[in-house]
Amino acid sequence: MKRLAILGSTGSIGVQALDVVARSGGRFEVAALAAGSNADLLVEQARRWRPRAVALADPAAARRARELLGPGGPEVLEGAAGVTALASLGEVDVVLAAISGGAGLASTAAAIEAGKTVGLANKESMVLAGELLMRRAAEKGVAILPVDSEHSAIFQSLAGHQRPHVRRLLLTASGGPLRTVPAAELAAVTPARALKHPNWSMGAKITIDSATLMNKGLEVIEARWLFDVDPRRIDIVVHPESIVHSMVEYVDGSVVAQLGVSDMRGPISYALAWPERIPLELPALDLPRLGKLTFEAPDPARFPAFMLAYRALELGGTAPAALSGADEAAVAAFLAGRCSFTRIAEVCAEVLEALAPEPVGSVEQALAASDWGRRQAERRVAG
Ligand SMILES: NC(=O)C1=CN([C@@H]2O[C@H](COP(=O)(O)OP(=O)(O)OC[C@H]3O[C@@H](n4cnc5c(N)ncnc54)[C@H](OP(=O)(O)O)[C@@H]3O)[C@@H](O)[C@H]2O)C=CC1
Ligand SMILES: CC(=O)[C@@H](O)[C@H](O)COP(=O)(O)O
Ligand SMILES: [Mn+2]
């Protein structure tokens, strides 16, 4: 039996991970749960799964959870340090990193340092400090198993092949809810419209990133480090049906893809159960009913955000971290009605070009660069 710490348990990935646990026939035990401030849902989850410890980043929420759980309940830790501490608990075998944003980096790094297998949903960890984390994981002999659907697909399609045999990685993108919207209409897009993803039900930040295509840019950076592939050999293909989750093109021209219904419980269970596979009893892929699968090139004129990720990789060092921080701030401003949809990518581009990148020597340095990007973006949004 594998013992899990699910960090971000109250979010889209966290809730689906607990559904995977429920369907797994007792293969997993929930040893720890963590969230930001949603004490009520965390307490409900703790009552059902009886972890040894839980944590809430928000101290007031942690106090509420302690009151609700009462004596005899799990230990309730608080603050960022409490969340990070769960990643290295002795009772934990696998850490599912499913916190949203740069806030997930410290606990991912702590899990690696503690020698835990990591199921990585939090792509920002790789964006902020991918080179550093992969080096430490190799030194510690830690497996980082991708949960992001595209990276899970690439991991499965690589099937142990050697890097010299790989010509290109092909990351598929749905194109998001605004794929067919003309350029002239994009500035007036409302948060409600941008939040209507055609295929996936996800947290707000990643859904807006899907709409701008920044999500695909962040995924290029994630793939660059997870699979140690030069960014010039990572291409994006728009595939509105989200059935082909990504592909690997080999030097002999053969292309291997992973297909499946658009349901994150697939990649989550793959990472948690790896190297085994478990039956989930989810709806099967029905290709005759789908009839056809379509593909097109991404449009950098309407959706320039994904190009910024290639630019950040070219700049190197702290540039991806600064881009990620700027994007978090710009997306929050858009959701709060403080900037337009098209301003998100403009602000990110301005911040990236204002940066003097430095090598990323530590997690703290990566977080500082992300904070710098966030502050720069906030200033530009306000100005
Ligand atoms: N949703 C999806 O289908 C996919 C998501 N991902 C990635 O997975 C990650 C999670 O995404 P998603 O589940 O959609 O996000 P959600 O916004 O739905 O959930 C975020 C989770 O993180 C918790 N959280 C937020 N801030 C903190 C913090 N400072 N400390 C501890 N916990 C915190 C939230 O707690 P609370 O509820 O209390 O705020 C919540 O449990 C992201 O990095 C995303 O890019 C990748 C591929 C697909
Ligand atoms: C489910 C998942 O992995 C998301 O990251 C997804 O890729 C978002 O959809 P887009 O392809 O629209 O960015
Ligand atoms: Mn993805």
Automatic annotation (TrEMBL):
GO terms for molecular function: 1-deoxy-D-xylulose-5-phosphate reductoisomerase activity; isomerase activity; manganese ion binding; NADPH binding. Its EC number is 1.1.1.267. Residues 144-227 form the 1-deoxy-D-xylulose 5-phosphate reductoisomerase C-terminal domain. Keywords: Isomerase, Isoprene biosynthesis, Magnesium, Manganese, Metal-binding, NADP, Oxidoreductase. Pfam families: DXP_redisom_C, DXP_reductoisom, DXPR_C. 1-deoxy-D-xylulose 5-phosphate binds at K123, S149, E150, S174, H197, S210, N215, K216, E219. Pathway: Isoprenoid biosynthesis; isopentenyl diphosphate biosynthesis via DXP pathway; isopentenyl diphosphate from 1-deoxy-D-xylulose 5-phosphate: step 1/6. The keyword Manganese applies. SUPFAM superfamilies: 1-deoxy-D-xylulose-5-phosphate reductoisomerase, C-terminal domain, Glyceraldehyde-3-phosphate dehydrogenase-like, C-terminal domain, NAD(P)-binding Rossmann-fold domains. Residues 259-375 form the DXP reductoisomerase C-terminal domain. It catalyses: 2-C-methyl-D-erythritol 4-phosphate + NADP(+) = 1-deoxy-D-xylulose 5-phosphate + NADPH + H(+). Mn(2+) binds at D148, E150, E219. One of its GO terms (biological process) is isopentenyl diphosphate biosynthetic process, methylerythritol 4-phosphate pathway involved in terpenoid biosynthetic process. It comes from the Bacteria. Its cofactor is Mg(2+); Mn(2+). The keyword Signal does not apply. Residues 4-130 form the 1-deoxy-D-xylulose 5-phosphate reductoisomerase N-terminal domain. InterPro entries: DXP_reductoisomerase, DXP_reductoisomerase_C, DXP_reductoisomerase_N, DXPR_C, DXPR_C_sf, NAD(P)-bd_dom_sf. NADPH binds at T10, G11, S12, I13, G36, N38, N122, E124, G203. PANTHER family: 1-DEOXY-D-XYLULOSE 5-PHOSPHATE REDUCTOISOMERASE (PTHR30525), 1-DEOXY-D-XYLULOSE 5-PHOSPHATE REDUCTOISOMERASE, CHLOROPLASTIC (PTHR30525:SF0). Belongs to the DXR family. Catalyzes the NADPH-dependent rearrangement and reduction of 1-deoxy-D-xylulose-5-phosphate (DXP) to 2-C-methyl-D-erythritol 4-phosphate (MEP). This is 1-deoxy-D-xylulose 5-phosphate reductoisomerase. The lineage of its organism: Bacteria, Pseudomonadati, Myxococcota, Myxococcia, Myxococcales. The gene is dxr.
